[in-house]
Each structure stands twice: as C-alpha cells, then as structure tokens.
Fold each of these.
Amino acid sequence: MTKRIAIIGAGPGGYVAAIRGAQLGGEIFLIEKNEVGGTCLNSGCIPTKTYFQNAKIMNYAKHSEEFGISMENVSISGEKLLERKNGIVKNLVGGIEQLLKSYPNIELLRGTGKIIDKNNLVVELKDGEKREIEVDNIVIATGSKPLMPDVLGMDLDEVIDSDALLEMDVIPEKLIVVGGGVVGLEFASIYQALGSQVVLLSSRILKDADKEISKRMIPLLKKQGIELYNDIRATKIVKEDGVLKVTAAYKNKDEEIEVTGDYVLIAGGRGPVFQALGLDEIGIEYSNRGISVRENFETSISGIYAIGDVNGGVQLAHVASAQGEFVMEHLLGDAGNKDFENYPNCVFTLDEVAYVGRTEEELKEAGVEYKVSKANFASNGKSLAVGNINGFVKVLGDEDGKVLGVHIIGPEANLLIAEATLAIANNLKVEDILKTIHAHPTLAETFTEAVAGIYDQAIHVAPSRRRKK
Ligand code: FAD
C-alpha cells in the first residue's frame, strides 16, 4: 500500500524530502506557509551568496591597479543589488515550484500545518479554508528564525536582523554587526566590500572552527578594512541625534567601548520555529534549541520525524536536505546511507573559510594521535595569478595516513572543501589522494601539497618549514 507522508515546511529540508519521497513512490503532502525554498532560498544562502558575488567584484575593482587595470568611479546601487537578488530568488523559487509540480504524487498545500496526532494534521489554508489530512507519517521541517538577545535597544527600528538587511535597498554608510558566527562574519565582509564602513563586535570568532583558522581570520578581517572588536558583548543600544550608539563590554577585562553606526545587524544565532505545530498538545519533547530527535531523526512520538534547523542540530541547508533524504529513504524502504559526522562548513567571507572533519582541539580532547601538515596558498601559482595569496590548507591525519580533518582559509576554500569531504566521508588515505593526478595550475594543488605533507612528501614546502607532530 502506498505510504502517505506529510511534510511541514518546504525549505531545503522539506522540499528535498518531498522529492526523494515521491521518487520512492510515497504519496506526499508538502505544507508551506510562505515561499518554497524556506530560509535558504528566500533569506539565507542564496541572497547572501548573490551579494557575495557583488562583494567580490567590488573588491577586484578596488584592487584593479594591481592587475594593471584602472577603474575610476566604480559605484554600486543598493536598488540594483536588491533587484538582482530578488530576480535570482524568484527564478529559483519558480524552478522548485515547477519541479514539485512535475511529480504527480506531491501535493503542495499553501498554509500553516498543525499536528493533531501522529496520523492526523490540519492545514489552515491561505484562502481561509481548513484541510484535514490523514497520513502514515509526519516530517517536521519548519526551520529556524533569528534570535534577538535580551539587550536594551533591540526594539529600535534600525536594529535589524538578517532578513531585514537583505530587504533593504540602501547600503548602510556605517553598519555595526553584532556576532562573530558565520552569518555575522559573512555580512561584515560582504558589506565592507560593498562600501559600508563596518564595525564587528564578536564574543568569539567562528567558535566551532579549528583554532588556527579562527585566529587567522582576525587579522584578515582587519586587513580587509573591518573595525573588529573580539571577546566582547554588546550590552546596550541607544539612539542619539539620529545615530545608533552601541555599548559593548569585554568578557575578560573590566573595560567598555562605544561604537556608532546607522544600522545594527544582530547576528546572534537562530532558534527553532515550532510554535504553531501544537507540540505540547501531542507531547513531542523539545527544548529552546529545537525538537529532540533520536539518531534517525524520529521525535519522542514514534512515526513523527524532525529534520533540519528545527531539530536544533547543525544549521546548514545541505545537512537539512541530507536528513530529509535519509528519513524518506528510511520510511520508504530504501537503505539510506549518509555520513552525518563529516559535512562541509563554508564561510563566504572575502578570505573564504571551509572545513570538514575533526579539528585539532577535538583530536587532542579525544586523545587521538595525529599529524599536522600545512601548505600555504602563497606558493601556489594560481593563487598569485588570481591575486589572493592569503591563507593555507591544514590537514590532520592519523598514523595510518587516514585523513581526519581538513581546514582551509583562502581563495575558493568553499570549492576546495568538496574533495576533502569526499576523502573523509569515504575513509580515504593520503596515498589514495596522492594517486590521483590533480590539474595544474589550480588551487587544488595546495590541498594535495598539504595532504602530501602528512607523509613529509610535499614538493613545494622546504624541509625546514615542514611542521609535523
Ligand atoms: P527553513 O529553510 O527555515 O525552512 C522552513 C520552512 O518551513 C519555511 O519556508 C517556513 O515558512 C515553513 N514553516 C514553518 N512553520 C510552518 C508551519 N507551521 N506550516 C507550514 N510551513 C511552515 N546554510 C548553508 O548551508 N549555506 C549557506 O551559505 C547559508 N547561508 C545562510 C545565510 C543566512 C543569512 C542565514 C540566515 C542562513 C544561512 N544558512 C546557510 C542556513 C540555512 O538557510 C538553513 O540551515 C536552512 O534553510 C535550513 O533548512 P530547513 O529546511 O530546516 O528550514
């Protein structure tokens, strides 16, 4: 008998689950109260990466003299920036709607879903009607929303979250960013390159990254032109004579600073969206972080699953999608196989960061014996040609040459991490990677050099500079 499955939320978790479920023969009800694509397409990954491309162009224009090109009077329009971003989002949302329509066994219901019990839910449709659906399983994929800390001044109009900044048609003259996580750093770097004067207040830069990477990030952000204060917390925001004044206190010393700006972006993390689902009525366990799930993403009520940002685990679009595929494969009889331990993390700052696998700190804490090898982009011909020699690739490997972690800061880190992820998820060893011939001249050669260094075989690293453990 065909399984009937309801999925609440059509972000990258929900819509990918719907398509995978339909491929496997399920009858799928996909419920979405806003646009399909969720945060990722409408106010997250895609809008920011659209702006990131503008930032890269502006940065090249700023440094054009280094390439022997003179570009005078380069300017950017906030209105055109917004228009281009909206066009790209509309295009992608429309594409996903068409894709969903192409599966006869997916029904997209526009409205808000509420769970009645493990086999029944009600959808309050946009036209005011209600529709009750009986299903075999329910998958919750309702995502997350920005968290606003309890700091005086949060209610001021110019104190905004990332959703609001991405809807503005002006580029702020002076932007204060509060938050040193991925979202905060990306906005700080992008808006500085777009022309804003940026002040970044961070309590800790990229707290989950390998320490060497987050440490290197600080001078690179400063070099880019960002006024950065680290180990600091915003305590108060006031508006005086039309200007916002943020007071921030250092965590480890008795000292405060005051900075001023036109807008304050709060990038202090995101919390789960589950308020409309009726979790208490049916007794699904949850905390402030998200809906509690077991290893297979099943909630405390058997037959109901929670995937993506709403389960309080990893907040990444590709992880939400992978969880969606996994759950549908599990429900529809296909032996799903995903490595949820090793997923790439990418930070789209001008000096990009990407990493996968274990950090040095994690290996130390777990008492694992490891070797470290690093290769700098400064000795890569392609790096010099593209005009970005900042950064390095750091590889961690074990005694047997198994790759345990790869941490990259530098040009196209977000592309380079794909090969490292493939290597780690498939337990590849140094010799497997070195057996593979890599193209020249490419940035990927810095990855192979760092991998080779685990066996002390890097060609472009002088013996005296090889750092091994
Ligand atoms: P969401 O994408 O949040 O989708 C949930 C959907 O559920 C929404 O469409 C919502 O309207 C709907 N919904 C909620 N409640 C109900 C209900 N009761 N009934 C019906 N529908 C409901 N991740 C990356 O991997 N790469 C990036 O580069 C990246 N950049 C980001 C940049 C920013 C500024 C932000 C904010 C996030 C970024 N992320 C990025 C994170 C990424 O957007 C999320 O991890 C991802 O969108 C989570 O997917 P999801 O399907 O779990 O939830």
Amino acid sequence: MSRSPSAPGPLAGRRILLIVGGGIAAYKALDLIRRLRDRGAAVRPLLTESAQEFITPLAAASLAGERAHTDLFDRESEAEIGHIRLARDADAVVVAPATANMMARMATGHAPDLAATVLLATTLPILIAPAMNVRMWLHPATQRNLATLKGDGVAVVGPNEGAMAEAEFGPGRLAEPHEIADALEAMLVQRSEPRDFGFLAGREVPKKLAGRHVLVTSGPTHEAIDPVRYLANRSSGRQGHAVAAAAAAAGARVTLVSGPVTIPDPAGVAVVRVESARAMLAAVEAALPADLAVFAAAVGDWRPAETRDAKIKKDGHAPAPLALVENPDILATISARAEGRPPLVVGFAAETDAVLDNARKKIARKGCDLIVANDVSAEGGVMGGSENTVHLVARDGSVETWPKLDKEEVGRRLVARFAALLEARRG
Ligand code: C5P
C-alpha cells in the first residue's frame, strides 16, 4: 500500500514494539520493520533468544534506527529502560513471527524471558502473526491457545496457507509484511483504548460506569417438557457475557442473569443462574433497580403448556402434539414498568433477514431505548462464533453499523456507548 506524504495513515507517528519470535520466518520481520517505518511508525525491536538464531539484533537495530532489546537480565537495558516501561512505552505491540511456544506462553501467562514478560505486563493492543509448521498450527493445543488469546482481546493476522519448509502444505506461513502492517493499521483504528481486562478495572480502564448498577441477561432459556427434555434457543451467551464483563471493567456493579451456558462467569460480576423464561423474569425483577438493563438473552418465546413430572415414554405410538403457551416478554415487561424502569433499556435483535426493518419494528413494540441488531443467518457464523457485526438502532429509527469485531470488542464498545448515553441523560 503506498500513500502520498499528504495523506498519513493510522501508523504515522505511532510507536510500535515489535517482538520477533524464533523460526525461519523471522527474516521477514526485517522487512516488516522497513514497511512499518515507511508508513511513518517508529519501531522498537525486541528479539527472543531463538529469534537471534535467525536474525541478528544488529540487523534489526540498523533497520529500526534504534537498539534492539534482547533478554530479561540485560543489565544495560534494564537500567536504561525497564521491562515495565517497554510494556507501556508504545502504542501497540506486534509479535511476528509468533511461534507456537510464544502463543502458549502468552495464553498461560508463563514469562521466562523478556518478550514474554513484556507481553504479560502490557495492556497495549497486541497483534500476533503466527508462523509455524502446519501440524503445530492445527494441533488442538495451539487452537485452544489461539481461542484464549482472542478472548483476551489479542488481534491475529494469518497464518497464510502455502508450501512449508518441510515439504508440507497448509496454514502456517507467516502473513506477508504488508498484510501485517495492514492488520496493525486496522487494529489501531478499531482500538484506541487499552484492552480492559476485568482485573485492571480499578486502574487502567476509565471507570465510566462507577456507581452504576448494570443488569444483563445472557444465554438461552430452557423450557422443560419433562425431566429430561426441554425447548431451547441457540445461544452461547458470549455476547451478553462480554457486555457484563466490559461493564464490570468500567466500574459498574453488575448483575448477570444467565440461562444455561458452558462459558465461564465473567470476573467481578454477580451471576444469577436460571433455566426458564419465567425464572429469568423473576430474577430480573428481583435485581432491580438498575441504571442500565441490557437484554441479550435468547429467551424462549414459548414453553410447553404442561411440564410432565415423569419422563414421557416412547410406547410405540406417535407422540402427543406438544401444546405451547407464550412466555412473558422480559424486555417488554421491564420497558413498560411505570415505576422502577431503568433509565436506559437495551434490547437485542437476532434476525435472519430484513435485519434493520425488523429491529425498527421491535424497538417500537418492546418499548426499549435502543436495539442492538445482528444478522444470525447461517452464512454469518455469528451463532456460537467469536465475531459479530452489529447495528445500533435508535428509537427515531436511525442506524449505526459497526465493522465486524470480536464479541469482546463489541461488548466494550457497547458499554462505552451506554455510559455516554447515561451521562448525557444525567447532564
Ligand atoms: O422478539 P425477540 O425475541 O426477537 O426479541 C429479542 C429481544 O427481546 C432480546 O433483547 C431478548 O433478550 C428480549 N426478549 C425477552 N423476553 C422474551 C423474548 C425476547 O426479554 N420472552
């Protein structure tokens, strides 16, 4: 990508800490340094011990125009610039190539050297460009680590598919330097704030929701047919849980009313577990008052008219038709409260078609203040997936569409938006 000097891109004036892992692809890190500098960034290289088997600190330093850092107990470096400063003194961290070993360290918080220590200490946005043998990449352990890292807010570029050094073919090749630079630009445009882990809530994340009580519903409901069977909606709970986590990180007291899910409880959140829609409504009402209520649960619209106490037997006859009755609409019930309605009530709309039209109708029908709409048709992979493209639909019908983001980032952005809306209402 070339740019005229009059149109500086997102990397202009940015300081990038480039951590170079070991592996044959390390040589491409040198080209990456050059490209990042071409786009106006200042690059500080940090080479792991195994990276130095492939490229020298001198080569990296010459291209970067500043010294290359190398290991944790480098007295000179520690005196001059400690690892904590290295972890803070930049706008973003890029790890290229990120080896399987490096990803495992990052995912588990194991920090035996300078690179891993810096990665553990930093709250800057991180982009990793994995490169490894195809079997190592596809190994469940690496894929687990990848999922963990994404969950921690780490952005990933590549790996690309292609022929590998060991005469194998598949994903594992380091993304090209220009692709890494593009991904870094995209990340810097998307993420201007530090990754807000719950454990940092008290320090680095602006506590925009301090003193507020936030109520979130998440996950599916289960409507019992008999002791072993139930009706349910598809929902992993990931988006609702991410909103709850982000609200806690922003300083709110959070009550998360969750249907049955398999994902962990977010840190710093009071979780009330329920199964049915009626139990969810009761838990929501018990949790009020709240300053903000976000209804992200996929609540069953109907439940069996009757729940059998004993398992229905398969006795050779066609089963009796399942009579259904309507469940209470929790969002509509809370939105319509004359007393104790939260000042900001947000609904979700999962649609498979006519997303915006349906969301506009829904906001009027339900009486909420804002709808977060998304397309859950099979093509999008939103259901159970890690990413989401959302549209914010306001009461006046106006729509704001966000780019495809991971669900944690959607959660953080939604919370920032809700905080601003609450502040505007107060002011
Ligand atoms: O009508 P629909 O289910 O598409 O509406 C989705 C929105 O309404 C979501 O915010 C969901 O949490 C909420 N809802 C609810 N109670 C229901 C059905 C939906 O709170 N019974």
